[in-house]
Specification:
Blueprint: H1 3-25, H2 28-44, H3 46-62, H4 67-73, H5 77-92, E1 104-105, E2 111-118, E3 121-126, H6 131-142, E4 146-150, H7 156-172, E5 180-182, H8 189-194, E6 203-207, H9 210-219, E7 232-236, H10 242-254, E8 263-269, H11 273-286, E9 290-293, H12 295-303, E10 310-311, H13 314-317, E11 325-331, H14 334-344, E12 349-353, H15 357-366, E13 371-374, E14 394-395, E15 403-404, E16 411-418
Parallel strand pairs: 3-4, 3-6, 4-5, 7-8, 7-12, 8-11, 9-10, 9-11, 12-13
Antiparallel strand pairs: 1-2, 2-16, 14-15
Helix pairs in contact: 2-5, 2-7, 3-7, 5-6, 6-7, 10-11
Amino acid sequence: MSKEIQEMMQDIGKRARSASRAMARASSEQKNQALLHIAKLVRQKTSEIQKVNQIDVERSQKNDQDTAFIDRLTMTPRTIETMALGLEQIVSLEDPIGKMTALKRQASGIELAQMRVPLGVIGIIYESRPNVTIDAAALCLKSGNAVILRGGSEAIDSNTVLAQIIQEGLAAAGLPKDAVQVVTTTDRSAVGEMITMTQYIDVIVPRGGKSLIARLMAEARVPMIKHLDGICHTYIDADADLAMAVRVCDNAKTQRYAPCNAMETLLVNKAIAPKVLPELCKIYQDKGVELRVDTLTRSTLEASGFKNLVDATEEDWHTEYLAPILSIKTVADIDEAMNHIERYGSKHTDAIITNNKAQADRFLREVDSASVMINTSTRFADGFEYGLGAEIGISNDKLHARGPVGLDGLTSLKYVVIGHGEIRT
């Protein structure tokens, strides 16, 4: 690592730490004013954002990035409007900072409560999703944190223009611009420095592919909120409503292929497989989805005249495709389905389609994932859809935060003790 990069990152860290104190004392009104101003600017500058984003997209296309990558990178008027709506939704949420539990008097006479406080300085490391720049900054801002954003080199132009918009909004509300900083170098050694800056950064949130997460897990000294894979399953139970199963499973896979909450493996009870698989798989094939199937599924589909099926391998059950590819397995019962999820799942999001309450209750209790769903699409595992305004990431860890991480996940608690001159004896 060059001395120049190290000094730059240390300076960013120092300024973020200083700004974090101002953010911790900022009023809800100030923070909301900043968010509303940012939303207004995002809408006003839609054309400018798209123009700059197109530079990033064309550069990535020249570098032969795949379709899923380009999809995550591209900012359309719809995605830009979704960012603005997310900002406004965050404004409408209750500010968690300063919220206290009821004071409880102890036998000693002291009164005890817990206060919700910001984490401090959050570092976000992400790839190819420029909307994260707005979403992450907004959540950190509302929760009273300062944030250092290090996006991928492929989105450097988009991230830079969005950072300028954010800082303009902060200034308009009388908040320090250094509360949101974007690392402008594409030198990867900046990440190496960032993940060891324990004196300035309180937590790292990585949002990217397996290689990024694996590197950070091996090298980071700063604690992380993370998820490695989004291998999401949907199990169609024997007691499922067929029309619902077709509609939901179609959406879970094909509404968008690139997000981490898209279904990657479909599990179907053998009792219902002959009724549901032909209709559902015709939809998939008509939409260009490659089907990778086990022996029982192949038998069911070939009996209905299906061709161009691919035999699923052991690796397929472990794979997050983020592409129009789907693994399908026919299972004997809910136990086999849950055993499969336990073995191959990533603890992200898993769903059951059933009208059997007992089966649904078992699935909810026994499937150990951050989001567990009944009769709906895995695509709902998202901060915006959960009413969090946006998400800073999805955590499939069990400590501190789990699932889509919104405002509360970016805070901590400290004890507040009020005395009246008591001394311990």
